[in-house]
Amino acid sequence: MKRVFLIVLDSFGIGEAPDAAAFGDAGSNTLRSVSSSEKFNIKNLKRLGLFNIDGVDYLDDEPLPAGAYGRLAELSNGKDTTTGHWEIGGIVSENPMPVFPDGFPDEVIAEFERQTGRGTLCNKPYSGTQVIKDYGEEHLKSGRLIVYTSADSVFQIAANEAIIPVEELYEYCRIARRILTGKYAVGRVIARPFIGDSPENFERTPKRHDFSLEPSSDTVLDCVSEAGLKSLSVGKIYDIFAGKGITDFVYTSGNTDGMNKSLEMLKRDFEGLCFINLVDFDMLYGHRRDVDGYATALTEFDNWLDTALPLLRDDDIMIITADHGCDPAFTKTTDHTREYIPVLVYGRKIRPVNLGTQSGFCNIGKTVCDYLGIENTLAGVSFLDRIV
After folding, report:
1. pTM of the prediction?
2. Are 233 and 249 in contact (CB under 8 A)?
3. Does the domain at residues 106-212 carry the CATH identifier 3.40.50.720?
């Protein structure tokens, strides 16, 4: 009975991609920045081969790596969460999802206000923590929704839970999702609830919820579920893929909760794929440019591997990767960075080899299908024959 645990460390890039300059990200390197912190201590990832990957020449490599290791360059035109995860799943997005550096057009906002019956505030690119400080008081007084975007293809709605109950905020997001189609079809509509009664104590809550576009074609999740196997998700994977192809899922409140629920999945009897996202690296530390926080979270994950890796059964494999970069020391932007992602593969039957530098995050999804014996037409080139 084969099980694959595919873990995305959200935003854990390992160095600028060949086309980083075209995205304004020349010089970015999330791993290098995080490794400068005194909080950085990742013995397990080192043992699996992370420091042996091409380009990681600023850290001492592992003499005898325990896993297969390499780096992947993105083929899709983007550096956002949806595009990165979809490519891991087997979809290469040639056209970027729409972004709105000047805010959303009047016709979009007017229709959103008409259908929700509420006015809006902001409507421009903004930091998620700063926007509630700058607009939160006015929102409390008027009940108008704080609408904002970022460098990503997102329509975000912030609202105080004392004014807008969370389920009501989710319904407003569903309305926005129905409106944002065609040329306005952003990758995600995101609910951003917060609490507090003044800018000094405004705080976002873990009740964030993403409403994504449905994938444009089948992904590894569809291939697995259509083959009659389990296709499980932990964290925001269900939202990123709009539930498509997923047979069972659990949400998480952050990395610690995500790792705890992943341990439950490791103890569960099933055949198929468990797709996991750990979001705090990106949401709490990358975007907020918190190097020590990022390093602490990475060390926590590495310590979690002490418990997780021994739970792998004879035919299990674990794949650790990322969806883009978000260099917490990069000064040009607070947004995602166009970087290579690592791929680390571990299991009792996995050969510890250098997979080198490859094109396509989609090689991961292709390899998962091959390992599970599933015929597929996904984009990508499997590297299964090199590691088993």
Report:
1. 0.92
2. yes
3. no
